[in-house]
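Structure (tokenized):
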């Protein structure tokens, strides 16, 4: 067998050509980390490409042990996570994984006791000259007291920023969001009881763990923590007291989230006034 000899001096040229022809990865983007009492936070996004109308991202909230932050419904005194945008994003939608109940000296509220990543969907401007997303974040982080956190982030929309790790983080954040009803966990249709309480049944099969229910209907339609009034092993019935007069405040746009063990579900229900 005859082997061709390639002079050593040719190697750099060959390597350069190979690098040029190899597909280049499309990188995601990330802001700086904002450090605060109890943790730190930042925004990451999936790769941006020309012509995109929307861009998926995530708000990463890394909490130190013992610290907590709020769900979309923070109770009467909490601060829900809020994101506003400028720059090359016209608006942003924030999504929430199912929380846990937190019981402390101030009452019961829905939130996250461990680091959490909140998925974001950015609607991009159509001016054809995208450079970055400017985002302002406001949320509360709590331990013995609650600390309001305000931070400004600049997320570059360039192919050279960030790493593919952020793409995986965004994918994981969206994958962790609750789906609709399933065979293992199903939220029933809410109804008003005769004494003006909200009643919801949660059907669960398989698995284990305590069933939990969470309600969100806006600042003017808050409810107390839902209480389980019956549980036969496959169906848990919850009732929740409204902190408003159901007959006077009109219809309620209700979001119901549920958790039992590793199973989660969420549904949006227009709730007519009784």
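Design, position by position:
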């Amino acid at each position: 067998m005859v082997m061709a000899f390639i002079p050593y001096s040719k190697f750099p040229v060959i390597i350069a050509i190979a690098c040029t022809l190899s597909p280049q990865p499309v990188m995601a983007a990330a802001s700086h980390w904002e450090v605060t009492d109890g943790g730190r936070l930042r925004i990451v996004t999936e790769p941006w490409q020309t012509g995109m109308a929307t861009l998926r991202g995530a708000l990463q909230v890394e909490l130190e042990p013992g610290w907590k932050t709020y769900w979309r419904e923070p109770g009467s005194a909490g601060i829900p996570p809020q994101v506003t945008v400028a720059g090359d994003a016209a608006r942003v939608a924030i999504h929430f994984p199912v929380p846990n109940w937190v019981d402390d000296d101030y009452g019961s509220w829905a939130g996250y006791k461990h680091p959490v990543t909140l998925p974001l969907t950015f609607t991009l401007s159509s001016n054809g000259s995208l450079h970055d997303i400017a985002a302002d974040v406001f949320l509360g982080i709590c331990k013995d007291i609650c600390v309001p956190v305000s931070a400004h982030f600049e997320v570059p929309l360039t192919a050279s920023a960030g790493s593919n790790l952020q793409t995986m983080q965004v994918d994981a954040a969206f994958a962790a969001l609750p789906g609709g009803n399933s065979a293992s966990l199903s939220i029933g249709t809410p109804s008003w009881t005769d004494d003006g309480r909200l009643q919801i049944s949660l059907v669960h099969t398989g698995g284990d763990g305590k069933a939990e229910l969470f309600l969100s209907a806006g600042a003017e339609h808050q409810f107390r923590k839902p209480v389980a009034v019956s549980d036969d092993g496959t169906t848990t019935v919850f009732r929740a007291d409204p902190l408003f007069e159901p007959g006077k405040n009109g219809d309620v746009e209700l979001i119901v989230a549920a958790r039992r063990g590793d199973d989660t579900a969420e549904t949006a229900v227009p709730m007519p006034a009784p």
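Reviewer-requested clarification: The chain has a mean pLDDT of 85. The helical segments are 11-21, 164-175.
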